[in-house]
Amino acid sequence: MSISVGIVTAQRAVFDKPLSFRSGAVLPRYELVYETYGTLNAERSNAILICHALSGNHHVAGYYAGDEKSLGWWDNMVGPGKPIDTNKFFVVGLNNLGGCHGSTGPSSIDPQTGKPYGASFPVVTVEDWVESQARLADHLGVYRFAAVVGGSLGGMQAMQWALAYPDRVRHVLAIATAPHLTAQNIAFNDVARNAILTDPDFHNGDFYQHGVVPTRGLRLARMLGHITYLSDDAMADKFGRELRTGKLNFSYDIEFQIESYLRYQGDKFAAYFDANTYLLMTKALDYFDPARELDGDLNHAFAAAKAKFLVVSFTTDWRFSPERSREIVHALLHNKRDVSYAEITSQHGHDSFLMQDEQYFAVMRNYLDNVAWESAA
Questions:
Q1: Which of 87, 255, 300, 305 has the fewest other C-beta atoms within 10 Å?
Q2: Domain range holding 92?
Q3: CA atoms within 13 A on the CB side of 107
Q4: Identified catalytic residue from 4, 152, 313, 352
Q5: 152 counts as catalytic
Q6: d(CA 280, CA 129)
Q7: What pLDDT digit, counting tens, does each position of 284-311 carry?
Q8: Would you say 351 is a known binding-site residue?
Q9: How many other C-beta atoms are found inside a 10 Å radius of the C-beta of residue 374?
Q10: Cellular location of this protein (predicted)?
Q11: 169 three-state secondary structure
Q12: pLDDT, tens only, 199-209
């Protein structure tokens, strides 16, 4: 029977070596907040890095003391006896640079000005994140990860690990992701960003100094995003055309249950997430394209990879469709890399990678059991 990892505590690593961003900006000093679960073996061969998606963070599993409801965002996947088994693996989760859960980001104080970085925080890319993650691995004494795992934007980071540090990762698990965003996905992100950028309380990214939060823009951005994370069938099954009061009110107030749900999700998100971080995360999504400088040749891009891959997609994920995962698989096969592919039947859309699904979990468990066997050999 699988159980939680229990009470966990966040840790902080400070890096004084400047980090050069792909944009040309330089961050002289920064901090990364992270959590670890399980035990690093004597050979240091059983470490797994979890890369988070847009709204994720370092709190992957377990809960905080005094608050058993504060479960990590992937607690159903990570823990003793779970697919990512902390009895076998040393699991690392971190909050990426530019985040708003403790790592250095736009809301952090810039030591040169004594004020929050705000709009001056550098635009960050997946490549920048992976560079900072490699430094965290050095800090933890992990030269080579048994696996790097991520869904959505996290899957892009996992792939970048195989390309940037081919000798430092044995396996990549890329889930519900893509080799680059489609024009439609970039369009969704632009609309979401504009909801924030045009909020009068945004103040060009320096809203901290005005004592306000661009709540309306954040709420709209999250509502739009949430629509794209769900499938039409999932929405129909959960909400249909159900009215809150059982009758039409002939007004612009909330009438349908789906409207109530989206506004609740938007309000909840706006209460804890940073607007500048949202802008940075969506731009990182837009920019990721390992084949951009190779004339769009994805086969050429993946030639650098040495890791074995598990690629997982979900049938109703229309934002990161199975066709996009198969592009990754084809590029890996072209390069004669070891790759396994699973297309999971699910009604939950893009959010399927966060859900507990028997087939999905069996695929993850079976693959990672082999990774654990390798780590112990």
A1: 87
A2: 11-180+288-376
A3: 19
A4: 152
A5: yes
A6: 12
A7: 999 999 999 999 999 999 999 999 999 9
A8: yes
A9: 15
A10: Cytoplasm
A11: strand
A12: 999 999 999 99
Q: Is residue 334 part of a domain?
A: yes
353: tokens are 């990678």
The residue annotated as part of the active site, out of 85, 128, 317, 357, is 317
Q: Indicate if the pLDDT at residue 190 is higher than 70.
A: yes
Q: How many CB atoms lie within 10 A of CB 236?
A: 13
The total number of structural domains in the chain stands at 2
Helices 215-229/257-270 angle, 10° precision: 120
The answer to whether residues 174 and 322 belong to one domain is: yes
- Of residues 255 and 283, more confidence is placed in 283
Please tell me the predicted confidence (pLDDT) of residue 318: 95
> What's the CATH code of the domain at 202?
1.10.1740.110
CB hemisphere CA count around 50 (13 angstroms): 29
Which one-letter DSSP state was computed for residue 7? Answer: B
314 membership: H or E segment, kind and range? strand 308-314
Would you call 317 a catalytic residue per the annotation?
Answer: yes
Element (H, E) at 321: none
Asked if 24 and 68 sit in the same domain, the reply is yes
What global pTM score does this model have?
0.96
**Which of 171, 180, 350, 375 is labelled catalytic?**
350
